[in-house]
Amino acid sequence: MKILILGGSQFFGRKLVQLLLENNDEVTLLNRGNHADGFGEKIKRIICDRTDKTAFEEAIKQDYDLVFDLSCFDFEQAKHACEVFNGRVKKYLFTSSISAYVERNDHLSEEQFNPLDFELANKVGRKEHYGEAKRQAEISFIKFATFPVTSIRLPVIVDAEDYSLRLQRHVNSIKNGLPLYFDNLQGKISFISADDAAKTLFELAGNDFSGTINAASAKPITLQRFIEIIEKITDSKFILAKQKLDNNVSPYNNTGDWCLHCAKLQSLGIKLQEIEDYLPGMVESIHRTG
After folding, report:
1. Residues with Cβ within 8 Å of residue 134, at least 6 apart in sequence
2. pTM of the prediction?
3. What is the per-residue pLDDT for 120?
4. Mean pLDDT for each consecutive 10-residue tract of the chain (290 residues)?
5. 159-191+219-259+275-289 fold
6. CB-based contacts of 145: which residues, under 8 Å, 6+ apart?
C-alpha cells in the first residue's frame, strides 16, 4: 500500500515506519526534515511544514491508501488536512490523546468525550491548552473529513529513548537523590510503550474500524509502584519534595487517577503488553546509559 506519515521521524513514529517496511508497504514521510529518520533509501520523503497551507497543498501530489497523522495538534491543522486529503485517501489515522478527556478518573471510556456532542467555543493552539486543542482537532476531522478517520487516544507514551526525556528525568532524579513532587502517589496512571503505540496504529490500519478508540496497557500503575520499580533497579531511595516548585514537579503528576479504559481496543483483538512487563527493561536501559 501507499502510505503517508505526517511526522514520523522520531519516537514511536520511527517504530511505525519499521513495521510498515516489514509489511512491504511504500512509505513516505512528510515533515520539516529537522531530524534524521535513519531509513536511508527505504522510504520517500517530502520536506514540508504542514502549517504552511500553500506549501502543504502543493506537496501532496498523489493519492494514498493510508495517512497516519502524528503531527496534528489543533482544529485548523485538522481542517486543512481534510481540505488536502478529501478524495485522496482511503483511510486516515490521527493520534489524539488522553488529554482530550475533560475529566480525569480511573475509567475513561470513549463515550465520556463524544466530539459530536461537544460545543466548540474559542479555538486554541497546543501551547494554550494541549487537551482542548486535541479535542478541537477531533471535532474538526468529524466536521470536515469525507474519508474514514480513526482517532486514537493515547496516554503517556514511555520508552528508554523518549525524546521528551520524561521517563529519563524520573530515573535520573531518583538515582541522583533529587527530590520530585507528586500530589498523590496512590494515583493510578495509564502508560503505553512506544512499541505498542506503533503496533496499535499498524493494526488499526489493517481493519475496518473507524471512530475514536483508546489505546493503553490494560492495567494502569500507581505512581508509588512506578517509583518502586525505579528504586529497585537503581538501588536508590526516592525523595518526595515537600514543596511544589516549577523545577521539581513530576511530568506524570496528578491529583487523582488518569486511566484509559480499553475494552473497545481489546474487542478488536489488539493486545498490548502490561506495564510491569516493559517498564523495568526501559528503566534498566536508562540506568545503564545514564
Report:
1. 73, 74, 96, 97, 99, 100, 126
2. 0.96
3. 81
4. 95 97 98 92 97 96 97 97 98 98 95 89 90 96 97 98 94 97 98 98 96 98 98 98 96 96 97 98 94
5. UDP-galactose 4-epimerase; domain 1 (3.90.25)
6. 82, 85, 86, 92
Closest CA to 221 of 259, 174, 264: 259
CB 3 within 8 A of CB 31: no
Residue 221's pLDDT is: 98
- Residue 119, pLDDT score: 80
CB-based contact 182:248 (threshold 8 Å): no
User: Tens digit of pLDDT for each residue in 107-135?
Assistant: 999 999 999 888 887 899 999 999 999 99
Could you tell me where in the chain the CATH 3.40.50.720 domains are found? 2-156+192-214
Residue intervals of the chain classified under CATH 3.90.25.10 are 159-191+219-259+275-289
Say which CATH class 2-156+192-214 falls into.
Answer: alpha beta
Helix (H, G, I), strand (E, B) or coil at 49: coil
SS3 state at 64: strand
pLDDT recorded at residue 110: 97
Question: What is the rounded CA–CA span in Å between residue 261 and residue 270?
Answer: 14
Q: Is 65 helix (H, G, I), strand (E, B) or coil?
A: strand
Terminal Cα-to-Cα distance of the chain (whole angstroms): 40
For the CA atoms of 224, 252, 104, 184, the dihedral, rounded to the nearest 10 degrees, stands at: 40
To the nearest 10 degrees (0 to 180), the angle between helices 166-175 and 275-289 is 60
